[in-house]
Structures are given as C-alpha cells and as structure tokens.
Description:
The complex is a heterotrimer of chains A (443), B (127) and C (502).
Chain A: H1 8-18, H2 48-60, H3 83-89, H4 92-95, H5 107-124, E1 128-129, H6 136-151, E2 155-159, H7 164-174, E3 180-184, E4 201-208, H8 218-227, E5 231-236, E6 254-258, E7 274-278, E8 290-295, E9 301-306, H9 312-315, H10 328-364, E10 370-372, E11 381-386, H11 390-399, E12 406-407, E13 418-422, H12 429-441
Parallel strand pairs in A: 2-3, 2-4, 4-5, 5-6
Antiparallel strand pairs in A: 1-7, 6-7, 8-9, 10-11, 11-13, 12-13
Chain B: E1 7-8, E2 13-18, E3 21-26, H1 28-34, E4 37-41, E5 48-49, E6 54-60, E7 64-68, E8 73-78, H2 86-91, E9 100-103, H3 117-124
Antiparallel strand pairs in B: 1-2, 2-3, 3-9, 4-6, 5-8, 6-7, 8-9
Chain C: H1 30-33, H2 51-63, H3 85-92, H4 94-97, H5 109-126, E1 130-132, H6 138-155, E2 163-167, H7 173-180, E3 184-188, H8 198-204, E4 209-215, H9 227-236, E5 240-245, E6 264-267, E7 287-289, E8 301-305, E9 308-312, H10 329-342, H11 347-365, E10 381-384, H12 395-404, E11 411-412, E12 421-424, H13 432-451, H14 453-458, H15 470-475
Parallel strand pairs in C: 2-3, 2-4, 4-5, 5-6
Antiparallel strand pairs in C: 1-7, 6-7, 8-9, 10-12, 11-12
Amino acid sequence: MPFLPHTPEDRRSMLAAIGVGNLDDLFASVPAQARLRGAPDLPPGLPEPEVLRELRDLAGRNLPVLDRPCFLGGGMYRHAIPAAVDALQGRLEFVTAYTPYQPEASQGTLQAFFEFQTMIAELTGMEVANASMYDGASAFAEACLMAASVTGRPRVLVSRGVHPHARAALRTATAHAGLEVEELPLAGGRTPLPRTIPADAACLALQSPNFLGAVEEIAPFCDAARGAGALGVVSVNPIALGLLASPGECGADIAVGEGQPLGVPPNYGGPSFGFFAARGEFVRRMPGRIVGETVDRDGKRGTVLTFQTREQHIRREKATSNICTNNALMALRGAIYLAFLGPRGLAEVASACATTAHVASERIFSIPGYAPLLEGPFFHEFAVRCARGADRVRAALAAAGIAGGIPLARFYPEFPDALLFAFTETNTEKEVDLLLGTLRSVR
Amino acid sequence: MRPNDRRYSETHEWAKPEPGSYLVGITDFAVEQLGDLTFLKLPPVGRKLRQGEAFGEIESVKAVSELYAPVAGTVLEVNAAAPDALELVRQDPFAAGWFLRIRAESGDGGYGKLLAADAYEKTLGAH
Amino acid sequence: MNKDLSIFERSRPGRRGYEPPRPPFPARDPASLFPASSLRRTPPALPEVSELDLVRHYVLLSKKNTSIADSFYPLGSCTMKYNPVANEVAAAMPGFAWLHPFQDDAEAQGFLVVLHRLERWLASLTGLPAVTLHPAAGAQGELTALLVARARHEDRGEGKRRTVLIPDSAHGTNPASVAMAGMTPLAVKSGPDGLVDVADLRAKVGAETALLMITNPNTLGLFEERILEIAEVLHRAGAFLYMDGANFNAIVGVTRPGDFGVDLMHMNLHKTMSTPHGGGGPGAGPIAVREEFAPHLPVPRVLEHAGRYSLEWDAPKSIGMLRGFLGNSGVLLRAYAYLRRYGGDGVRSIAEHAVLNANYLRARLRGDWHVPYDRTCMHEFVATNRRIKETGIRTLDVAKRLIDLGHHPPTIYFPLIVPEALMIEPTETESKETLDAFAEDMLRIAREARENPQLLRDAPVTTPVRRLDEVKAVREPRLRHPCPNSAVVSSGLGSAASAGGR
C-alpha cells in the first residue's frame, strides 16, 4: 500500500507489544453490526504514474485560460504570476506545516503572516489586518457580522453591486443571527448614497470596483455611515489599490477582499484567500488568526499568534467567529507576490489593467450593437449591453476560443443582455483585436 | 485567611459593604488561576446589574473569564485605572485592584446570600 | 548576513525584483480615467527587493519551520500524515489550476468528473448518499451541516428545535459553529470511561433538541461504543445525529457513519484525505448527509446526466452559499488523487495502520507516562504529566523539550477534560523506527524531569527563538512591521504599532 512503511515483521512485533493478535482486534470497540463487510465502492488503487496520467487526461478535457484570450473576471482574474511565487510557496516546509501553535518551531510561517498583515495594512490603508480568511465572499460576510456585533445593531445595508456570491454568503451567515439584510439598489451601475440611514443600521457595505466594474465613491458612504453611528465596510480589489484610493484613505472601518489576484491561479474557484483589515480599535472583535511581534527569553525578536482569547478554541460559543484555518498557504502566495511587485510593480500592473480596459472599452463601444451599462468610471472590468443578445455573443466568443464575458443575467435579471469583460496586464493587443473582431462578426 | 470585612461569590468575586454602596472585585484565587492578566473590560457607570449577571470580562493570554455581579444594583463608579494597570489587580486584588462600586437598588442587593470568608475558602478546597 | 531580517528591512527604495508584461497600449494618465477623489494619495509601503533578496528571504523563513517534510509531527486531532508530492504536481497542472470558476460547464468537464467522482467516493466511505464539496474548511463544514439540519427541521415543521447537544470533550469549534447557526449549545457529560454519558444524554434530549454533535472517535481517541444506542435515543426524540468527522481517518474503510446511525457529518480533507495543512489552510470540509437532507445542501451541486457534467446553482430549499464559487477545488483535487492511490481495496489500511501506530506508541509510553484512558485507542491517545508532576514540570515544558529533541510536540492542553493533556496522534505513515525514537525521547524526558528539570524549563534552545513572551504580545501589541512611509491612515483611536486599545 502506498505511504505505509511497515514490513510484516514490524506489524507482528507491534501487535505483540500492544498485546493483540491481529489488526481487527484493534477495532473491537466498533459495534459488529456497523462494521463494513467488503471494500467500499471505489475503483482499485493505482500507482503514482497511472494516477498522474489519468489526471493529465482529465486536465486535457478542460479548457484553461492560461494560454488563450481570456477576459473573464467577476472576482477572479488572470494575472501574471512570477515563477518565484510557485517555487517558494511550494517548499514543503511551508506546505506541510500546521497552524503555528508552537511558535518556536513555526517562526517561518509566523513571520510570513506578520509581514502579510503589514502588506495588507499598507495596501488597504488600515491599521490592523488578520492573517487571512477563506476567501473574499466569506470575509465580506464576516465583516458585516462583525459590524453588527460592534455596533449592537441588527440591520446590514449592502450595495447590490457587491459580488453576488459575497451577498449570498452574507444571507446564509445572517439567516439565523437575528440580522436583517437590506439591499441598496444601483443606478447607472453605481450605488447612490441612501437618503436616510436607519437608526438601527450596523453598517453600510459596498464593493469598489463593484461586480459590474464601476468604481464607487467610497468616502461619502463611510462618512454617512459614521454620521449614523454605523460602520463603513468596503470590499476592494487588491490590484486596483495600486491606483485607487485605499479604504483607509476613504475613512472605512473594515476593509476586506478576495486575494486571488495576488499571485493565486483561479483554481476553478479555490483555494484562494480573503483579506480582512480594520481600524485598530476593533482588533479584539476581528475574526481569524492574528500574529504579533514580541521577544523571547533572551530579548530576541519573534512572532506569535496573539489575541487568541477571541478564538473558538478558548471562547467557544462566544468566539468572534468559528473560523480556524486561514488559507495560510494562499496568503503566503499573496505576500510573496506583493513583496516581489513592490509599490512600483503594483502601480504598473494596475495601470496596465486600467489602460487596456479603457482602450478596449472605447473600441468595443464604437462597434454598433454594443453599449455601456455603466455611467461612471471603471477600473479594469465593465459590463456591456449586447443588442444581439448575450447568448449569441457568448457563442461567437466561445467558437473563437475566447474565454469570457460573464452573462450578468444569472445574477442581475434586470440586465438580461449584458456581458461582463475584464482586462489585465496579461492581455495582448492581439487578444484584444480578436475580441473586437469577434464582437464585430456577431450578426 | 481572606478579609472578613466582605463576602464572596462562588465565582470568585467579592463585595465589601461601604456607606451607601458595595465595593466589588475578584479574589486572589481568581487572579492566580488566570495567570498573567492582559485585558479587563468593565461596564459603564449607570448600568443596572442583577445579582449574578455578567458585567465584564477579564483575560489572560489563553483564558477568558466573565465577571459576575456579586450584588444587584447600579454601577456608581468603576476603577478606571484598573484596565490600564492590571498589575494593581494582580498585586492587590482586595483593595487597589477593585473593579466597581455598586449601589444596591433594594435591600442588600442579595449580599446576605454571599459566602463568608471561611465558607468561600472551603469551596476552594475542591479545586 | 543577518538571517533574521524582515522583508521590510531588506527593502531599499528604488530596488525592484519584478517587471510586469510590457503594456500593449500607451499608458493612460490615471487622472484622465478617475476623479481625483478616487485616486490613491499615498502608495503602499510594500517591500522593494531584488529577486534574489526575495528568494533568500522566503527560503530562510521556510527553514525556520517544523513540518512533516522534516520531522515527526504527532499533533493530536490534526492528523499530520505524509502529504504525497504527486498531489501537489496534479493540482498545479494548468488544465486544473487555470480553470476559471465562471467558465461554461462544457469547458470544465475534466474537473467536474473529478468533483463528481469524489462526491460518490465520499458517499461510499461515509454510507451517506448526498455530498457537498462546497465548504472551505472543517469549521465551515460544521456550520453548513448545522444550517442544513436546521433547514430540515424547519421544513418538516420542527423549527422550534434549537438546542444542540455537545459532549464536554468536544473541540471549541463545535459550540462556536452552533452559535453562528443561531442555535444554543448544551453540554453533555463524559462518563468515567471517557465516552458520552448516555444517562446524561437521555436526561438532556427533549422536544427542543435539534441534534447531537458527536466527534467519533472522540478527542480522547476512543470510539463511542454505545453509538447505536445514542443514535436511537436521538432519533426516537425526533432529533438528528451529527458527526464531527475530524477523526474519520481512524475508521475509514472499517465502518461507515451512515451504518451506525449518523444523519449528517463533515470531513476534514486535510486530515483524513491527506491534503496539506499549509501552515493553517487551505482546507476543505465536505459534508455527507442522508438523502432527506439533500435538497437543503448548499449550491452549487455537481450533476451528471448521460456522461455530461454540470453545476446546478438553483435549488429552492438550499441553504445557499457559505463562500464564493464552488469550493476549494484545488484541495478537492488532491483528495481525489489520494483516494485514487489507495482505491477501494486499500483505504481500510489507512485506518488500520493509524490505529496500530497509536496503540503501539501508547504501549511504549504507558509505563512512564500516565495514560488516563488506558485501553485500546483509535488513531490517538491522551497522556499527562501526572507521574512527573512532583517535579513541577508541566506539559508545556515537555512539549518544548521535544522540540529540542527534533520532534514536533503533540497537541497540548486539549481535550479540556484532561488536565495537562498531551494528545498524541502518530498517523499511519510513520515507521516503527520513528515511533521508537519518539518513545525513547519521551522516556528520556520523564527521566530528565527528575534528574535535570532545568533542561526542560530552559527548552527549547535549538530553535531560531526561545520561549516567547506572549503576555507582552497582547499587552503591547505590534501587529505589523513599522514602515517609515506608511500609507496607513490613523483613525487617531489606536495607532498601527500599538493597536490593542480599548
């Protein structure tokens, strides 16, 4: 059997040391009528080369987006990933370690988290960040739950521009928490500031750029939230923060987002990571793991998990959240990616995304039959109304080998004919031309 | 022997009668059980408490304990220095490390139901 | 060269390690694209390092870790077994890693085959026919199962059932998940044998009981021998039996939870199915349920019709989504590859050898170490410091000394019902020599506790840092590296360097 080291002699001597006759005797506490007779219904085991061959065959039945024109976004984007990210994250010392409960034996993971927290704080402009969440959607839901717990208020006002999966996760998370979720409608693809904010509002939550691609005016929302005694919760695209105002600059109380653009392949939806940052005063109310710096017995600098009394293993049903793992390995990718890019690299990637998207938008909207859905500014993604119908355009794009755009109708029935297109630094002029040519060809 | 001028709860709080109010804190035993203290959260002045109601939290690195009102009444005053000087609580839990001053709303606020020092100490034997 | 620098201390203004692809179009002036109010005013103070600086930094960090790849890691309940390298290779194949979740199902048939088969296999292993792969981790799997159970109760007019019984030996995640599901936990006592006290269970089951959340084998490493009776007590009262499958690795292929009365369970694929722990994730926490719960499972569901696979996003009775997109597909793929290696004929040997190794280690240690529940265990067992207690040596000291002797320590101070616990789970992939070496070192530590206790109190001394001041970490919080050009906007209510405020 694979991965099992014992020789028959090992087994004999170990059973003798235990004082039982055979392996079955070890399971005497399992009721006889519940024991499985025969093997479970799985195909027979295979050696490594055959498993890998089968998986290569299965991978070959997929149509990945790495080496063909791709304009898919909707929360996960194709960005270039420096080779060093794979090599360094792939080190088994990172891959096969557990949560750093023994800090002296886990300084690698802990220091990497500490640096990750610093980078997320810098990126978002917020005072504290945790060591990551499962993904952007669950981070958003947890942010709204935290706002409700901090304010002691039950109403979550959430923009309809927030990623539909994040809103779905929020609905599931709040379904039995005694909270009301109220959706703020869109106009021209953006979220108008509500005229009045109810006195029982816990937070105003919005996403920028939002799911339709529009850059929202965050600061007035945060001001309005503060004025009403509520919190401003903002979900952001981390790449956009190379150009756009940070949540901290806009006065946000909590900033979250999907970390996939930071060096993580789309992985067919996961794993990626979520990030979570907040104003310093809220650190004791934050979910997830937090790493802090301290000193050892000799006064040498080191890092530990801290504020653990927030967590479920100590506070049990009164914990800030039930989250245990933090998608650490994916957050490590994010840290390596950000360290590699630096402030200049990030600004260049953000600028390339925005430039290509704006060039493409001008050219797309010069083609008859395509009209913008958004009225305001966008970053690297935008919704396109297709006069000839989203399905026909999609079919033509697929036939041309192009990945994208995303039909909005599934999430926004009010936009039955719209497709969402995203552009990144990986899109070449040739790819853009193929997209334009294909759009032109749809009759 | 712990001070006889006050009474104790089984959850390790004490209440000391003073003119018009009770002074409230936790015992040396509770402090010792928690270890190095890191955080103390006390209620606002004016809060009404039932006897046995949770009024705050005290934490060490890896433990958290709720604080329960030994007597019923209204919070008249909190020891504002304590949260920022937890060594007061550790070094002098029966005096300088007090938490609240509570005015009993009716009667003795349940003070009579609390344990005398010797009875409290007997409960510690079980630990 | 200083090997202890932070990446920020390696940074020099103007240095760079990465060039993005050359842009195909002349860069637009941001001021022409966005209103001034939307533009970033201060750039983030990210590190500025060369590629070599970066490589060296993270290689040095990796060397400061203890991992399965370099050490025995008997961390109880965490199942630190070998993580096959081939599974990492498979997950990195561009045909899987570069599949976007919003692609048409037709473009993802290969991945959907993997997910569909994995669902079927997990159903076969659990004896519970309906499976969702959606949850991101075990804790999210718990919450999912609780919400599904609650939806089922509501659907059949039993919505008043809001109490969740939890044995006192359970992991803290259980009550935390119950609270998030808007239900109320109620503890059930463990008996002197370490198992659920069935009399206490009977006394606490009632018309308000939604379910019992049982970890089986439990956190003491014991199989709940009266599980059939427990299931009957719950079912007769109209409640469900939910199994926390954190320890499923002990029984996989030997018995199926569906066959001993379990209605719903979650699995931690990073435990039983050997997907790597990654320093704390990503995991995956699928749940398996009896057919009657299937309509309430989260979306999307993976469907198969005449050899074509698709994702179903609309299910009227579904509890919805708990995270974005499908699930941690890349983790699920690793679990698939792992099960493919063992196959139906081999999975039983996982449990057999996990249990063999745990019992062998128990037999080796029981003379010098107190084993409070000293009988045939499953995949793990609990020891304590009782026999060396008079030396003043605590379990924490034992753990730190183990580090100096080259082992990762067991889980300590858990379960809570055993004072000074050392929870030891060797896993099936460790050889007899490794177990013997660990046992010898544990016996050595028992001796050292009496002869040279200072050695234990001083440990560890072989690590990059010695024991760290965790009190200072909370009292004087430093939760980020200070950067001179920081882009953080202070709220004035708590500064970045000391963010502990009230």
